[in-house]
Amino acid sequence: MSVHGLLLAAGAGTRMGMPKALVVDGAGEPWLARAVDVLHDGGCEQVTVVLGAAVDEAVRLLDGRGADVVVAHDWAEGMSASLRAGLASLGGDDDAALVHLVDLPDVTAPVVARVLAAATGPDALARAAYDGRPGHPVLLGREHWTGIVEVATGDHGARDYLRSHDVALVECGDLATGHDVDR
């Protein structure tokens, strides 16, 4: 089973005051580079990063990380634009995509590995849960990609699609909070 890591990092981060792809934590580590490493270390052999705002600066932060870059030219439309661009970029040999967000700094490789363990085939749908609350990363089997792209609008990404389908929740609250950082 081939699962491709897909990191969404295209937004302007208006609440943050800067694109989240450019945020560097207190230890000097860029969130973007850290999130790519988390996907690789969690079991994704291939990782694609979707960028939009501040592309040139973000690409420099990825130097040597072994990730492909896709630009969502319509990134200002919201997360759905990033998701559509990312899914469209994946190859025909990928059975699923594991979608992760750049603004989840406490999500670690063990979370990714646990969600990846739910990858049963191209029909799989699974997502991390934190104390029962659905979150990211989200595993999207290839059989769902067309349906997701058809309904993904604004900042909702795959949310509406996932609400109308049977999604396996993979409890990860013992590993992380899954909280996004907006400020």
Key traits:
183 residues, Spore Coat Polysaccharide Biosynthesis Protein SpsA, Chain A, 6 helices, 7 strands
Structure write-up:
The protein is α/β, with parallel strands linked by helices and 183 residues long. 27% of the residues lie in helices and 22% in strands. The chain has a seven-stranded mixed β-sheet with strand order 3-2-1-4-6-5-7, sandwiched between helices. Helix 1 crosses helix 4 (109-116). The longest helix is centred in the N-terminal third of the chain and has 12 residues, at 31-42.
**Major sheet strand order:** 3-2-1-4-6-5-7
Q: What is the CATH class name? A: Alpha Beta
Give the overall shape.
Answer: globular
Distance between the termini: 37 Å
SSE layout:
Blueprint (H helix, E strand, L loop, with lengths): L2 E6 L22 H12 L3 E6 L3 H7 L6 E4 L7 H11 L6 E6 L7 H8 L8 E6 L2 E9 L3 H7 L7 H5 L4 E4 L12
Parallel strand pairs: 1-2, 1-4, 2-3, 5-7
Antiparallel strand pairs: 4-6, 5-6
